[in-house]
Predict the 3D structure of the following.
Amino acid sequence: MLGIAIFTILFLLVIGFSLFFKSLPIMKEKNLWELLTSTSWKPFKGDFGFLPYIISTLYVSLIAIIIALPFSILTSIYLNSYSSRSICRFFEPVVDLLSGIPPVIYGVWGTLTIVPLISNKIAPHFVDFSTGYTVLAGGIVLAIMIIPLLISIMLEVFRSIPREMTDASLSMGATKWQTIKKIILRKSFPGIIAAIVLALSRAFGETMAVLMVCGNIAQIPHSFFDACYPLPALIANNYGEMLSMPSYESALMLAAFILFTIVVLFNGLSRFTLNQIEKKYQFS
Amino acid sequence: MKFLEEKIFKVIMIGAAVIIMVTLIFIIGTVFYKGLPSLTWDMITKIPGGGFYLGKEGGVLNAIAGSIYIIAGALLISMVISIPLVMYINFYLPNKSHFASLIRFSLDILFGVPSIVYGAFGFALMVYMGIKASLLGGIITVGMLIMPIMMRSLDEVTRLLSRDLPNALLSLGSTKFEMTKVLLRQLMPGLMTAVLLAVGRGIGDAATVLFTAGYTDNIPSSLSQPAATLPLSIFFQLGSPVEEVQSRAYASAVILTIIILILSFSARYFSSKFLKYKS
């Protein structure tokens, strides 16, 4: 049992190191900085520029957070402070199901509804033509996928605020809303930031759903209505051809390594913050 | 004035909650609306026939069977590893052990690692061990994906368990191992919840099996054969230009959604059953 325990801790390092060693060949061939900032992706000529993919990933994830955040904050405040027990209990399965629906289903739904919506209704107001497979479509689908994560973490953060604090505020004559603004939101600010970072890292790594709706054209997207090509989609789409070329495989493993490093870093930071919060307010 | 602001915000908050709920209904509704008309008995009882990808006869039994095989294997592996680990950090380590919190911390991070990274790592591992894309590869990779989920959710329910029973057992002179066996029985519903959550996540994930399990029109008969999976089958069929094949993708999506709905609701049932043992 001790062995399993140690193995679990080391497992993270094992994944990290093996991806790192797999991506060493390409990093020896080319300067890492050059790889990360070049925009030219021509594997068969030996050009591996990750910039379009990195920008795409950031772009889609940021849109997702911007859309998801207001909904999740408002809903979790409501569930935490206003709603009755029965509404809370009714809402739990909704969050559960949203987080349980597989990415592929989100992708199918996205291509059925969001993509035509953007192509026919939204995009014509802004640009001449858009296929609908865009940054925006990826962002919207992703937003729905991270909402359950945001809500469940924020609820936990809100619940960790000691009852005495809100009671004190209420007994001084503050309204519920004033208490929420001045006490709950202020006290849980670090927790909310941690939740956002966690959701962001989830968004970075989401593969299938985004891949199905974002167009997959290797370019730096200039507007909401351009197609984009995030890092996970790059890995997923090219696994078949990469076998024949060692440097290609190594480049894709580098993509996985970049993704892994960022996600582990973000996750580590936000989990650490959340654990600190939990410890701080635990009286038992 | 301060009440007006509160009222306005309350309306907005309820609006946000309602929108989220409606979105969920809309997603499931759309999938069912598009998929149900082409969902036939053949879809779930037949493997793809000749010309299946041109719209001819056949079903996705290969993918359903493949998914079930993979998740069953993955579940077995992850249970064998998770249960002892969770028992260890909860009953063997001291109450506020730093080692236990370090393990929980790394589990949390492992939980956050994207499935595509597990896929890439699994692929690298398979190349290293000389395994081709196969059922075994899929089982190992999905096993890695669902292990942190299992451990973390089993750990959560174990922590809720009252400390009285273990203390009583120990004071009666039982060993820690005997105590763990008794407690495991009480943890059964919690274990079921953890299993169902893990299965739900594992069965719907496409990115992990993309490199590692391969794809085939047949039902795999040994560990070294490639295996189709339901999410991938949806993805590939959706990419087809033929309309019948696309509508079959929607029908397969309905099958997957129904599986997820069942898993999610039974998880909820078992976790409510567990609550009666809570301290």
The first helix of chain A runs from residue 2 to 29. Chain A touches chain B through 73 residues (CB under 8 Å). The two ends of chain A are 29 Å apart (CA to CA).
